[in-house]
Design goal:
Elements lengths: L1 E6 L4 E8 L6 E6 L5 H5 L7 E5 L3 E2 L18 E3 L2 E2 L12 H7 L3 E4 L3 H11 L2 E6 L5 H10 L7 H4 L5 E3 L5 E6 L4 H9 L3 E6 L4 H6 L4 E4 L10 H10 L4 E5 L1 H9 L4 E17 L5 E12 L9 E7 L5 E6 L4 E4 L14 H16 L1
Parallel strand pairs: 3-4, 4-6, 5-7, 6-8, 11-12, 11-13, 13-14, 14-19
Antiparallel strand pairs: 1-2, 1-9, 2-8, 3-9, 10-12, 15-16, 15-17, 17-18, 18-19
Helix pairs in contact: 8-9
The structure holds glutamine (GLN).
């Protein structure tokens, strides 16, 4: 069955329907990863966004029970060039189409995703929607033009209840802004006794758990929307070890007085080069962000930049000069992507060890 992809600039692309038919307006973003569509679709940082893959053949290894980054995906749509409906992989349990239908995510294939990517690179990300072919396209374009980008996505994907993931090691409170399960996996692998808390949990409650450290997760949307967590982080700094990933990184920077801004078309892919400014080593990283920390604004804070993107020289990591606090804009848990930055979880463990020895 035919389906349309309509962009706010009035362009209309004709493709073939798959997945669900629950259409929602979202920000159309592109991801350049060659593999990892399961991890991408289930990464709740994409809440409010329609993801378009530049790699031309998607679906060929199906969907499995191991690789999802959340149990309830929040991606608004999925756009690809060619769809493979006969997956071939021993771990595959269902097709991508079955998964998207089951989780209410609409898809479209037969789209020249690379041509649209060139457009987004030139003009920036745009609002877009998938639609049935008989829709009133002009009215739809007008709606897209008038619509605001979605706000406050974090509350849609954060847990509403505190829950433990018990273990015998360091006690870590994970503030869930839409946390990828890869972060849980990396901390659990290192023995961390996790308490997962909602995004709006007060600092006193968090400190009441007597944590060795606090992990600030990735999450969707504009970091400036999450004012309540920025205030919480201000109160946590200096009282416990803190490690932030992606949205968590942006929130630490805002809490310390730095600024964030929206990138023209973001960084989404599995091979973004980042230089570690302390060692000069280049890490190939997995990324998914549309906002970034303003490097100039770090000057008036107690933060120093530790990592920088080699493609566009934007800020990719910071460290606090007085307290045990550090963060990165990219994804050291990978999933999907290269493992070069996995050492950052070891640094978090070492930081908690060191603070315990000083206590
Ligand atoms: N993966 C993330 O945590 C993304 C952070 C933020 N929503 C951004 O787009 O920049």
């Amino acid at each position: 069955m035919e389906r349309l992809l309509i962009l706010e600039d009035g362009s209309v692309y004709h493709g073939i329907a798959f997945g669900s038919d629950h259409f929602r307006m979202g920000e159309l973003v592109f991801n350049t990863s060659m593999t990892g569509y399961q991890e991408i679709i289930t990464d709740n940082s994409y809440c409010g966004q329609i993801v378009m893959m530049t790699y031309p053949l998607i679906g060929n290894y199906g969907f499995n029970g191991d690789d999802s980054e959340s149990m309830i995906p929040a991606t608004f749509g999925f756009v690809i060039r060619d769809y493979c409906d006969v997956p071939s992989n021993w771990r595959s349990q269902e097709t991508l189409d079955d998964y998207l239908k089951r989780t209410d995510i609409p898809g479209i294939y037969g789209i020249d995703t690379r041509a649209i990517t060139l457009k987004l690179r030139e003009y920036g990300t745009m609002k877009a929607i998938l639609a049935d072919p008989d829709v009133d396209v002009d009215a739809m374009v007008q709606d897209l033009k008038n619509a605001d980008y979605l706000h406050d996505q974090v509350k849609r994907v954060s847990t509403t209840k505190v829950f433990p993931i018990p273990n015998r090691g360091k006690k870590v409170v994970l503030m869930d802004f839409g946390a990828k399960l890869g972060i849980v996996r990396e901390l659990s692998k290192r023995g961390c006794d996790l308490i997962v808390v909602p995004y709006d949990t007060p600092a006193q409650t968090i400190l009441g758990y007597h944590p060795d450290g606090v992990m600030l997760s990735n999450g969707p949307g504009d970091p400036q929307d999450v004012t309540i967590a920025i205030e919480t982080i201000k109160q946590l700094i200096g009282k416990t070890c803190i490690f932030g990933i992606c949205l968590g990184h942006q929130l630490i920077c805002l809490a310390c007085g730095a600024k964030t801004y929206k990138l023209k078309f973001g960084h989404r892919g599995a091979n973004h080069p980042v230089v570690n400014l302390a060692t000069g080593a280049v890490e190939i990283t997995s990324q998914n962000h549309g906002f970034a920390v303003d490097i100039d604004s770090l000057k008036n804070t107690d933060l120093v930049m530790t990592h920088q993107a080699l493609n566009d020289k934007s800020c990719e990591g910071v460290r606090h000069t007085k307290y045990p606090v550090f963060s990165v804009q990219y994804h050291p848990e990978a999933s999907a992507g290269p493992q070069d930055s996995n050492y950052l979880f070891d640094e978090f463990m070492a930081m908690m060890d060191k603070e315990e020895a000083h206590a």
